[in-house]
Amino acid sequence: MSKERVFSNLKESIAIENYKEIRKRQNKIKRVIQSTLTVTLCGLSVTGIVFAKDISTKIYNNFFLTGNGMATAMSEGYIENTDMEYQNSEATVENSKTGQIIEDASTQIKVSEFVMDDLNLSMTFDVVLSDKSKEIITAEETWKINFPDLLISDENNNILYCQDRETFENYCKENNLDYHFTEFGENYCNTGVNIVPIEKEGNRVKVVYNIYTGSETSFPKSKKLKVQMKQIKMSKEEETVMGGEEITLTGDWKIDVDVPEKMYNRETILYTQKSTTNENYKVTSAALYDTGIELTMKIKTEALPEHPTSEEWEFFKTICDEDPYGMPEIMNYISWKDMQTDEYKAYSEKCRYLYNITAYILDENGQKYEMTMGPRENGSKSIDENGIMTYTAMFDMTKYNQSDKVIVHFDYNGESCEVVLEKKEEK
Questions:
Q1: Residue 127: beta bridge partners?
Q2: Do 409 and 366 form a contact (C-beta atoms < 8 A)?
Q3: Full DSSP string of 155-200
């Protein structure tokens, strides 16, 4: 089939699928409206209902939603309550949907609590809106809130967090830094974030920022954090995706946070493998932090099967540089179509089989620790061309319940193995 004909068929098929998706969304909205009406009518005679959002907020308040390891560390005092003053800025509040603008809306921000180790930087921000702002939004109406140009650095100009290129480049220019936005290195951490508002009361909104590193970087042992932002994005709509908030507060906030010695003098405890019940299973690194223990494991299995292809995939490879803006739609459609084939289903089933490994750890007293559940990616797996799986995961054992000996238990497609680790002797 000619390249032009393949392209024409693709465009026609995508248009049909998009139309189907629109109809599905319309029907879904219709069902939601009907079910909402039903719930509203039924709810007139019901009291004491706890909504799902309230439940998740209560769970979140327990331990930043960063796992039992973090909860253990916090219960042992590994958390800092700053007791700082609010930082104020006269802000402009704008509703992009209505066009309404309010000037000189005094807005205050402070960092209330934070936890910092090699892998996590969790902060709670208190935002106090002015009475003027109520003409556009109140704290109680807020469903989403974030700081799109937030930049966190330290006393050595290490950039710990920034997701806005312009803010990043301006900071580097002002401080004569030769950092690059897309190149993570010693002075620029590769970080992700999870953002959740947890309290809304009066004029005040409290929001948690869980910032976490990628597998290749660690947070430095900073003694002072410098927090800056010029925008606060807010939404009254529950289903708003980050970046789609309709209300923007523009000001200028700068906050200095002192890091306590227990956090900047933190130390990592290392373990080494002493034995294994199966030579196909090895632990190549193990590091114990205040908030958890991270292991990297090597498992001998078999190489992944070859990914199935199609005429459309081969065609896609020839045009992916021609129209970068249209590529995601074409790629998503080809992927969706290929997933329906028996060949892809067999490939997918084989991959699931090869990656089907689970693990937990035991301390020397038999206490069991599961994998950490939180916003940070956990349990990453990859298989190389030689059939060696690299498996990296964090578990909920911390320095506060450390053990001289750790047993790693694996289950892999009906096969079990135990690897014994011991603390590495300090030199």
A1: 109, 205
A2: no
A3: TT--EEEE--HHHHHHHHHHTT---BTTB-BTTB--EEEEEEEEEE
**By the 8 A CB rule, do 57 and 200 touch?**
no
Taking only the tens place, the pLDDT of each residue in 258-285 is: 999 999 999 999 999 999 999 999 999 9
Within 10 angstroms of residue 286's Cβ, the number of other Cβ atoms is 24
Beta strands in 21-172 (DSSP E): 80-81, 87-95, 101-116, 120-128, 144-146, 151-154, 159-162
- In single-letter form, the type of residue at position 51 comes to F
pTM for this prediction: 0.76
Task: State how far the Cα of 100 lies from the Cα of 90, in Å rounded to an integer.
Answer: 17
Q: Are the CB atoms for 288 and 271 separated by under 8 Å?
A: yes
92 Cβ neighbours under 8 A, 6+ residues apart:
101, 102, 103, 104, 105, 249, 250, 251
In eight-state DSSP terms, residue 365 is T
Angular region, 65: left φ>0, alpha ψ -120 to 50, beta rest: left
Maximum CA extent, the chain: 70
pLDDT tens sequence across 375-387: 777 888 999 999 9
pLDDT digits (tens, 9 = 90+) for 69-126: 888 888 889 999 999 999 999 999 999 888 999 999 999 999 999 999 998 999 999 9
> CA torsion sign, 117 to 81 to 374 to 244?
negative
Rounded Cα–Cα distance for residues 66 and 374 (Å): 4
**How many Cβ atoms from other residues are within 10 Å of residue 82's Cβ?**
17
321, amino acid identity: D
CA contacts within 13 A on the Cβ side of 321: 1
Phi, psi of 91 (to 5 degrees): -115, 155
Give me the torsion for CA of 244, 249, 251, 255, rounded to 10°: -80
CA distance 10 to 8: 5
HSE-up of 61 (CA within 13 Å, CB side)?
A: 9
- Quote the CA–CA distance of 71 and 69 in Å, as a whole number: 5
> Which amino acid is it at 290?
D
Record the tokens describing residue 369, joined without a space: 């620790």
Q: How far apart are the first and last CA of the chain?
A: 68
Q: How many CA atoms lie within 13 A of 151 on its CB side?
A: 23
